[in-house]
Amino acid sequence: xxxxxxxxxxxxxxxxxxxxxxxxxxxxxxxxxxxxxxxxxxxxxxxxxxxxxxxxxxxxxxxxxxxxxxxxxxxxxxxxxxxxxxxxxxxxxxxxxxxxxxxxxxxxxxxxxxxxxxxxxxxxxxxxxxxxxxxxxxxxxxxxxxxxxxxxxxxxxxxxxxxxxxxxxxxxxxxxxxxxxxxxxxxxxxxxxxxxxxxxxxxxxxxxxxxxxxxxxxxxxxxxxxxxxxxxxxxxxxx
Length: 239
Ligand code: CTP
Ligand code: MG
Prior knowledge:
alpha/beta; globular
């Protein structure tokens, strides 16, 4: 069976400080959620999707599924308290027949279909694969309040993004153990790494940043506007 996609969109977006939940904040005339849905709509190897939502957003999400042209079975569910809880809840709703599950943040509107496809293919082969980019800046460790302690050598340091794809049995076991042991991680790859399993990286993109603050949203809006100005028709969430 094809891969299951989980789109985590249940966060409220406290740091963005917008009145609506972050996944429903407009970007270039469409809510953020639509970009993620439009991207997975173009991935041949995805066969179903589960979307975690803030309370009361089910009908708005159904509308976005239509607008995105996502012609797959899609389950909607309330999220949990933390992102990790939302992923675990969504994972329980994915088909047990799916070999691979790919997870993506609705807060990253510029992920390409190619990055989903690459993560899914690598996870099917190697067990787990995440989009990531090599660190470009110099990294400093700073002690409170503002004193540099050291420069952290940047060789081999990468920034983790989503999509993140895993063999389903591996991801289920990683979340089961994390729940039992009270482990909270900032991404799913970390939970799988704790099993001792290999996790590969596939090419992410600096454009695939996560919208966290109002400034991030302003940058994203400028990117969407610049695409709309191009003579070529914009390709939606792709490239
Ligand atoms: N998310 C989720 N369930 C939660 C928390 C987060 O599904 N309980 C999702 C968000 O909707 C987002 C992604 O996980 O797409 C990454 O989380 P983040 O960027 O932290 O979004 P928010 O939690 O909404 O933002 P903030 O932390 O500023 O409140
Ligand atoms: Mg958050």
